[in-house]
Structure of Os04g0369600 protein:
Amino acid sequence: MSSETSPVPSPRGITRALLWLAVATVACLPAVASSCRRSCGDVAIPYPFGMKDDQPGCAIPGFEVSCKRDGLLLKPFLSDDVEVRGILLAESQVRIKMDISWSCYNTINRTMDSINWFLSFRDTPYRLSDTGNKFTVIGCRTLAYITITKPQQLESSSLTTGCVATCNSQGDLASLSDGTCSGIGCCQTTIPKGLQNYGIWFDDRFNTAKIYNMSRCSYAALVEASNFTFSTSYAMSSAFNDTYAGQAPLLLDWAIGNQTCEAARRNPNPDPKYACISNNSDCFNSSNGPGYICKCKEGFHGNPYLDDPELGCKDINECTDWSKYPCAVPGTCVNTPGAFKCVCPPGYPKGNAQNGTCERDQLPLSSGAKIAIGGQNMFSQATD
Ligand SMILES: *[C@@H]1O[C@H](CO)[C@@H](O)[C@H](O)[C@H]1NC(C)=O
Ligand SMILES: *[C@@H]1O[C@H](CO)[C@@H](O)[C@H](O)[C@H]1NC(C)=O
Ligand SMILES: *[C@@H]1O[C@H](CO)[C@@H](O)[C@H](O)[C@H]1NC(C)=O
Ligand SMILES: *[C@@H]1O[C@H](CO)[C@@H](O)[C@H](O)[C@H]1NC(C)=O
Ligand SMILES: *[C@@H]1O[C@H](CO)[C@@H](O)[C@H](O)[C@H]1NC(C)=O
Ligand SMILES: *[C@@H]1O[C@H](CO)[C@@H](O)[C@H](O)[C@H]1NC(C)=O
Ligand SMILES: *[C@@H]1O[C@H](CO)[C@@H](O)[C@H](O)[C@H]1NC(C)=O
Ligand SMILES: *[C@@H]1O[C@H](CO)[C@@H](O)[C@H](O)[C@H]1NC(C)=O
């Protein structure tokens, strides 16, 4: 078809053609540029993450962070206002900081003043980690809810979970104990998989009007479970909020795209393009929502998203870490791609260097002579 006879392309058609060209160009680009900035303040920013204002290709779309100055420090942020404390590549997680919601009795106008936080990662690769976080409520007479919508948009169909913390009676106070979050002064519950947003609100029917001298404020937050240990001081003071300076760590799971490994691998132009490109990497369907993640094969470490001999998945030399990869007979470790072996030295064909000893075959002349290598040193043993 000649250009004279083809219809004038509509703007929509032009857009589509340009998009197609852009995809084709990206597919031909070499490895991720080494000039991409890979840290912000004290936080490493490994690919697929990258700086928002860096050159194209430094991040997979959706994984951009902005590096901003906060006083003297540089700090990375997701969606411009959510601070990133760490990117956990092997776990496919990001640790962020999120504000603690609170509700306090106001002695002047005799009402509860509350600050309820809402966080949304809709249309992003991030989901709240159901295994890493717990909804945590602190107080002596409080009921707080976690929902997937803002409280003012609540519908009966919205997912809502509540957690009650009380410590009203003398018996309750006596049974408050450090490290135990059991409903007395502290309540914790898990959240379902796949959530991309949450809001917190307090039920005003549970309020501290009658106990404000003892416990005026209650607190609630979704918190990284392994970072939280209940302290009895939390129930009756602002110690919880103070310990975390108003912001608790929270884990997000992330995933690439919204397809399974197989579909993304098969698709010639998936968006984004298939990401598990390092040698010795494997693809796994995300366990928390759609999409997939990449990991180095067992026995390899590095960045599974990079096709780079130095930065991609490299063999772990197990022989340099005797404490993690022991051979019972020292000095017998042999590194192999992805694994290691414990090999008895030549002349010691009997035994098992992995979990036993290496023994020399009986020699024809000195019958009964047997050399064992064991413990930390080699020794010879004459037996007759
Ligand atoms: C109570 O007073 C606080 C300020 O001290 C104000 O923020 C809040 O809106 C007041 N509440 C009501 C219900 O008037
Ligand atoms: C709180 O303490 C104040 C001053 O000590 C006292 O007047 C008030 O009655 C107490 N309120 C309650 C609910 O215990
Ligand atoms: C909890 O997180 C904070 C900030 O991320 C960190 O400084 C602290 O060491 C963590 N504590 C534990 C017990 O993990
Ligand atoms: C919690 O801590 C934050 C940050 O320090 C502060 O702004 C907020 O007022 C505190 N809230 C309460 C109820 O203590
Ligand atoms: C999957 O991702 C593609 C590209 O980002 C998007 O166009 C599509 O709507 C997504 N599908 C679903 C079910 O989220
Ligand atoms: C990913 O999920 C699909 C569909 O549930 C399944 O057929 C496939 O085996 C899974 N792939 C991996 C690598 O787990
Ligand atoms: C990946 O492995 C192939 C085959 O072993 C090798 O030819 C290639 O150079 C490797 N690529 C990288 C980036 O290490
Ligand atoms: C020692 O290692 C051998 C081979 O790896 C294995 O078959 C055997 O069960 C091991 N014995 C013990 C006591 O672990």
The chain is about 10% helix and 35% strand. The radius of gyration is 29 Å. Residues 106, 108-109, 111, 113 surround 2-acetamido-2-deoxy-beta-D-glucopyranose (ligand 1) (CB under 6 Å). Helices lie at 11-28, 170-175, 232-235, 239-243, 261-266.
